[in-house]
Amino acid sequence: MPAIAHKLKRVLGAMLLLGLPAFGDQVADMRTQMTQIATALSDGNADGAMSSFDKSFANYDKLRNYFEALANSFRLSNELEITDEQDSENETKLTVQWTLTITDPATNSSDTRDAELKVRLVRAGKKWKIVDFSPIELFNPQRP
């Protein structure tokens, strides 16, 4: 009987240990997704910034146009902080404080914008994809 109890403890312990890294990986994946968008934009890579988004996202094309216009016309600097995170097995909701600095290379004048973004990611196979990201007007290159 003690051998069965000991084996059961080992199996349960292994299950717990195997489950925790998966959740830890999920949290790391979310942060990586956000960092990837910011880094790609700062590097002038609109396609790289869009790679985290699912094409089912309602404003996918509009956001792609914003990212392309910004990346092609300005130097960008992004700072972000995840201020809230709600995780479940197949979905994560984030609140992200995003600061975008847009610099016109011709005049060297800068504009700094801030917004609190709501982001929703869902599991698509082994990857996570953004299916909601708002407000996107932060990235509107023609915003006054």
Short description:
The chain is α+β, with helices and mostly antiparallel strands and 144 residues long.
Note down, in words, how this protein is organized:
The chain is an alpha+beta fold. Helices cover 42% and strands 34% of the residues. It is built from three helices and four strands, in the order H-H-H-E-E-E-E. It has helices at residues 2-42, 46-50, 60-73, and strands spanning 75-87, 91-103, 110-124, 127-134. Strands 1-2-3-4 form a four-stranded antiparallel sheet. Strand 1 (75-87) and strand 2 (91-103) form a beta hairpin. It is globular. Mean pLDDT is 86; it is low at 3-22.
Summarize the main sheet: 4 strands, antiparallel
* Number of distinct beta strands: 4
Number of helices: 3
What value does the average pLDDT take?
86
The first-to-last residue Cα distance is: 74 Å
What's the overall geometry? Answer: globular
Query: Which strand-content bin applies to the residues?
Result: 25-35%
Q: Classify the helix fraction into a percent range.
A: 40-55%
Query: Which consecutive residue ranges, at least 5 long each, have pLDDT under 50?
Result: 3-22
What Rg do the Cα atoms give?
20 Å
Oligomer: single chain
By helix and strand content, what is the structural category? alpha+beta
What is the H/E order?
HHHEEEE
> What spatial order of strands do you see in the largest sheet?
1-2-3-4
